[in-house]
Amino acid sequence: MSRFMDVHHGMTGITAEQLKQAHQADLDIENDEGVHFEKAWADPKSGTVYCLSEAPSADAVQRVHERAGHPADEVHAVPLAV
């Protein structure tokens, strides 16, 4: 499994509750694609949301987000971490 960081733009004003709901929507269906969403962060002022996941591919990450109703604008592989 590889790690991915995906980015969503245009979510200006997102609240903690809305972020939690969006993350839960991903968690509810992640197993269908063999993905595990580890964490999500948001900057309500800029409208940017970041999600960290482990998945077999970037496409699998995107399919989960699309089905959950919030497709990612970018999905980046994260091959190195410390």
Q: Indicate the CATH topology.
A: Alpha-Beta Plaits
Q: What global shape is seen?
A: globular
Number of strands: 4
- Overall structural domain count: 1
Which H/E pattern describes the elements?
Answer: EHEEHE
Radius of gyration: 12 Å
Superfamily at the CATH H level?
ORF SCO4226, nickel-binding ferredoxin-like monomer
* Overall SS class: alpha+beta
Major sheet description: 4 strands, antiparallel
Could you report the average pLDDT, rounded to the nearest whole number?
98
Strand content: 25-35%
Low-confidence stretches: none
| N→C terminal distance | 17 Å
**Annotation field: number of helices:** 2
Q: Which helices and strands occur, and which strands form pairs?
A:
Blueprint: E1 2-8, H1 16-29, E2 36-43, E3 48-55, H2 58-68, E4 74-77
Antiparallel strand pairs: 1-3, 1-4, 2-3
General description of the model:
This protein has 82 residues and is an alpha+beta fold. It has a single domain, classed as ORF SCO4226, nickel-binding ferredoxin-like monomer (Alpha-Beta Plaits), CATH 3.30.70.3090. 30% of the residues lie in helices and 33% in strands. The chain has two helices and four strands, in the order E-H-E-E-H-E. Strands 2-3-1-4 form a four-stranded antiparallel beta sheet, with helices on one face. A hairpin with a 4-residue loop joins strand 2 and strand 3. The radius of gyration is 12 Å and the shape is globular. The two termini are 17 Å apart.
